[in-house]
């Protein structure tokens, strides 16, 4: 496939997203990370590449769907590389075995002015932090974009000369990342490594659900969160993934509504596919499902 547009490199690469860059909407962290990389590195006349309801910009989610994604999810490193290519980027997946090899890859990437996407498990109790304990469920997996060293690490590297710069204590290295709202955050590289070790080695297929509501005429209106199963509270939700995070809600709904019948996620999916719950539409990821365990992706502009 040919790229979707002609890339125009920025004269001065950004270190932060401009005001107005939208928040991640739904289970699309990997395509969102690519969109932020694109925004940092390129000036395409239209920003951002992450559409999020804005008809005036290109939809990164639509690009992903053209490559085999159902709702914007990316289920394998190979698919991520394909989507990146369609966005005018080059993405190279690199495995690492231990913290030292991870640091080596990151150093080389930042020296080459590339961005890095890490794959981590977010903390179950603090969804804004990469976790290393009690965070094994697949629904906690997250793509974390880093655009370079943190200001503190940059100062350390700048004040260390020659071989000293290569022997800085790796445990104190930190990187400048972007959260789900396009805002800058700083994490210790060791924290990211420890979390990356918890990423699933064998991923499950992902399921996504769209909520509908019944209008006064009896027609189904897409994109609204009034449904027999209310788990999506914010207005912008289009697709939502169910996993253990929503299990208490499923149980509570089943207890309150006899016609709901079950809180078993598999049976719920089957009932929706059989159109027994008309207020919800379901999809299942169909692209190949490969692990992001102890891998990172180095991203740069295409030629």
Which word captures the global form?
A: globular
Order of helices and strands: HHHEHEEHHEEHEEEHHEE
For the biggest β-sheet, the strand order reads 1-10-2-3-4-5
Beta-strand residue percentage? 15-25%
- The number of helical runs is 9
Largest sheet: 6 strands, antiparallel
Oligomer: single chain
Distance between the terminal alpha carbons, to the nearest Å?
16 Å
User: What's the number of extended β-strand segments?
Assistant: 10
Ranges where pLDDT stays below 50 over 5 or more residues in a row are 161-165, 214-237
Which class best fits the helix and strand makeup? alpha+beta
Radius of gyration: 21 Å
Q: Mean pLDDT score, rounded?
A: 77
């Amino acid at each position: 496939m040919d790229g979707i547009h002609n890339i125009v490199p920025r004269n001065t690469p950004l270190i932060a997203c401009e005001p107005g860059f939208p928040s991640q909407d739904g289970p699309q962290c990997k395509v969102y990370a690519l969109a932020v990389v694109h925004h940092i590195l390129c000036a395409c006349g239209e920003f951002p590449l992450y559409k999020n309801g804005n008809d005036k910009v290109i939809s990164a989610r639509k690009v992903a769907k053209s490559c085999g994604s159902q709702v914007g999810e990316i289920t394998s490193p190979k698919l991520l590389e394909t989507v990146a290519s369609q966005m005018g980027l080059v993405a190279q997946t690199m495995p690492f075995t231990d913290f030292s090899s991870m640091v080596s890859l990151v150093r080389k990437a930042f020296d080459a002015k590339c961005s890095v996407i890490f794959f981590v498990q977010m903390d179950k109790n603090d969804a804004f932090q990469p976790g290393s304990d009690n965070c094994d469920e697949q629904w906690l997996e997250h793509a974390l974009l880093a655009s370079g060293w943190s200001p503190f690490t940059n100062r350390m590297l700048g004040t260390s000369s020659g071989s000293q710069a290569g022997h800085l204590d790796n445990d104190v290295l930190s990187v400048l990342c972007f959260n789900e709202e396009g805002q800058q955050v700083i994490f210790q590289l060791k924290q990211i490594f420890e979390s990356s070790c918890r990423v699933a080695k064998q991923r499950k297929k992902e399921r996504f659900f769209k909520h509908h509501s019944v209008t006064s005429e009896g027609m189904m209106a897409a994109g609204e969160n009034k449904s027999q199963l209310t788990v999506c509270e914010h207005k912008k939700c289009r697709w939502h993934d169910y996993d253990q995070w929503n299990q208490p809600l499923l149980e509570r709904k089943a207890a309150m509504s006899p016609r709901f019948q079950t809180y078993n996620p598999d049976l719920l999916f089957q009932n929706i596919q059989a159109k027994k719950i008309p207020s919800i539409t379901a999809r299942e990821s169909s692209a190949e499902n490969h692990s992001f365990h102890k891998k990172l992706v180095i991203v740069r502009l295409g030629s």
